[in-house]
Amino acid sequence: MSAVTTSVLSQRGFLRSETLVPIILILVVGILVIAPLVKIVLSTLTVEGLDAWQAVLASKMSENLWWRPLLNTVLLGIGVAMGCLLMGGFLAWLVVLTDVPAPRTLGLLATLPFMIPSFAAALAWGALFRNSRLGGSVGFFEANGYIVPDWLAWGLLPTLIVLIAHYYSLAFTVISAALSSIGADLVEAAQVAGAKRSRIFFGIILPVVTPALIAAASLTFAGAVSNFAAPALLGLPVRMQTLSTRLFGMIETGQTERGFVIALLLIVVSASFLWLGERLVAGRKNFVTVTGKGGRTKRFPLGKWRWPLFAVAVMLCLLTTFLPALILTASSFALQNGSLFSNWTTHFWIGEGGTDMAQGQAGIFRNPVLIEALWMTLKLAVTVAITTMALGLALAHTIARNKGSVLATVLGQVSFTPILIPSIAFAAAYIALFGAPIGPLPSLYGTFLLLVLAASAHLLPYAVQSGRSVLGQISADIEESARLTGAGFFRRMCAIIMPLAIRGLLAGALLVFVKIVRDLSLVVLLFTSTSPVLSMLAYRYAAEGFMQFANAITMVILVLCVVATLLAHRLQNRVQKWKSA
Amino acid sequence: MTPANGNPAAIAIRNVSKRFGSFTAVDHVDISVPQGAFLVLVGPSGCGKSTLLRMLAGLETPTEGEMAFMGRTVSDGTRGLVADAGARDAGLVFQSYALWPHMTVAGNIEWPLKVAKWSKADRAARVDEVLGLLGIAALKERYPAEISGGQQQRVAIARTIGPKPSILLFDEPLSNLDAKLRIEMRSELMRIHRATGATSVYVTHDQVEAMTMASHVAVLNNGKVDQFGAPLELLENPRTTFVATFLGTPPANLVSVTKQDGGLVYDGLRLADARRAKAHDGVQLLYRAHDLKVGEIPGQPAITARFEEAAPIAGRTMVTAFANGQRLTAMADGYFSAAIGDQIRLSFLGEPSAVFAMTGERID
Fold first, then answer.
1. CA distance A581 to B142
2. Model's pTM, two decimal places?
3. Is B70 on the interface with A (CB under 8 A)?
């Protein structure tokens, strides 16, 4: 009997195993995520690699190669994490828990800095504070007769300020989400028990949001240590090295193995802090989901402090978003930083080449390199947005529908691995794997494909996360009922899941688009002259001293990012036709 | 179990188990029904009935055992193989209806036919046919969000019977409807079952639905089939105390007795002959509600109980009372009422219907 059954089953291909799709996906994420990491580790275990380990960790050079960059990196990380907690926490408290005027607008303002590239603020800082140390044109203050000391123009302090101005909105997002989950009844229960305001804050609110504070601290720490743009623009001119700028320098000067070693060390530093944060939070997760049916939160009256605090909050937001944008815009039109708002010229945007301005270079919109970079950036961002969202949806779907199986667990863990890896180190791993031909496959270095692969892998955790939230709104029954009709995986995806998920997916895709357009630290290693992107051009111009061009390109990036972000918000908030009944 | 006429059973479940980790949801279930049967899987929540149904639908793979439709193997647990849900010729009506919210009523019904590669003309004809059968032709162009729960239910059924599956599966389809609509849809479902001639499997926790609809009932308890058979057979000849107390309205009574001086004795009162207990010292006697009457009856044994509540049913009254911590259900003629806590007398009419061991299995 069983022999007969077997032949019937296999002949018709009538029965099938359910583990096929997960296995394909595991192969895909394995190649995208695990293979580069394994390869970079293996590359440092060769003879040259072991020499590099010794050079970095135990030689006369190791102070310059490892210890000083490490110190700077950790100082920046801790400083940024503390600054972001203070600033993001203050704004989150104000917006969520008090009767401050216009909380919604404040909330939107506080999320904007994260949507613009971190080098925008760094460039704006330079336009204001750059001093004559390096030669070239000086910033606004020095040009107007003020002496700007080195510590204010370059190095640790400006980098710290610029990074806080960028990452505080991340802390704001995390903390405000936790604060809004504190139901009014929780606070009212404490009030009924007779607790005073400070007692409620320290006894109820603070303990409840502690996991969010820790999460915000570790996320901003990881962001700061992996950031490349700010320390490169503000620190490199005075030889302040962080691990990410060291890594870049090593690879650029051909000391690849040393670069790989530093990349691995950077991964260890960043991942260990994220892991530490995770450990601290792990035992108290039950605090996060105290109330399921939030919505009503208790707002404390600020009394006479209402308007002063509002003014402080608006100032903070304007200083970190609108001021940099304003300075960059003005600078891209001004001949000199000394007179930002007079003698404007459109030369740096649309001027013809061959004049005595800007060493004969044309304005950015007449520069074929820039036009090509613009198209390349858009092409890259759109391609990556599509690939990551498709992959993210497939992964989230497979993980959710195979919940509890070993395959799903492995899949989930592998797709979230890139979160632990600073993007510049990830780029180094991609160079390790794809920089040389693999068997019959040619080297991918410098190709568009490599950029797409690396960016997709880097954004995988984000894509899976948004895939999850999109799928969370579609019940399993809806899809199973489609499965029962005999529709295959792709048919179900196209006819059932996609139409229901399309808006959420588009919103997610737009945010991926933003992340790619504003990214520098991933592309800085993978970029070649055949695959130029906007952020890289801006960085090159800035490094060569053509600040107006750099600022103009940065403004182009900034506008792209803001438009895409606002579009994503609109999409997420609009109602779908069949729900509007 | 092959029916006498030699045809293979429409649905054969052979020794099927389903484990999630160390938890056993379905435990060696072995039942089969002939074509046209209406099989009801009934049991309390968590008994494994929905898991069993999902395995029939092909949404879950059995850990062990085999399932066959019309003699064709569709799931093979030992090798972890399962026929594609769509290739089984079975349709499932979900508890949540699972209508596709972005398609109209007609679209919902038509899409499975498209998947099955029906021609356009056939599809249009079939959509109108099932819309008519369910009496919802007027809703054709509406979206699921625009119609009521009862109407959504009809659309879900229409969508499932559209491709003419030979097996219909229902997962507690009536549990989201209000009481009146539920009774209406119950007869509606029976009508559709007869009209399609399909073999149906119906999952419910409501024993009334099981008793009224089924041709075959399987009572599930902790993943195991406690008893499988025709509804009346289960009612008259329960094999376990679980089946005896789960089925039937009003619920039947179990009275714990001990063997004394050749009789089975409850609180000093002799209820039955000791021989019915066979070798056991302590047993449980089954008395149906109508075998326990409120008030003294000359010549019949009676006990005192504490009155709890009374519910009028069809001209009589169902009385619930407590005696020695045990809940007892008795009947009274006409309308009866008392204050909570009042002492009332309950008389046993005749012999117990069945005798069970203390562990639950039937002795006599």
1. 10
2. 0.74
3. no
